[in-house]
Design a protein that fits this description.
By secondary structure, the protein is mainly α. 58% of the residues lie in helices and 3% in strands. Strand 1 and strand 2 form a beta hairpin. The protein is flat.
Length: 127
Amino acid sequence: LCSYHPGVFRGDKWSCCHLKDKAGLGCDKTRHGVTLREWNDPLDPDLEAQLIFQHLLAIQEVMREKYEELSVLEKNEKHQSEDPENADRPFRLFQILHDLEEMYQKEVSRSTDMAQQNQNHLVELQT
């Protein structure tokens, strides 16, 4: 995070802080390793985790295709320079994303069921 810029590098400077060093430290909003939407906004870890999760879900298929493509190339070359423990990390990420998505769907379903039950209890109380 210390080198993160929320903007883009256009021409010869960053759009967020106008620094000219492309590889330098991040702008003031991130210099201390914390991303902030505005100067005075507190960091919300739940929101940040949700944003990261949504981003990973959005690019999951692209990552999976690239992983499968590289796996096929590696098998064809019969080249195993990578540590076997590290080789399964992308697959593990896909499993974690799948598990998180399942838990999310169960929670949505549970919340919907609870809302329906509350609605039924309200109708019973009114009659």
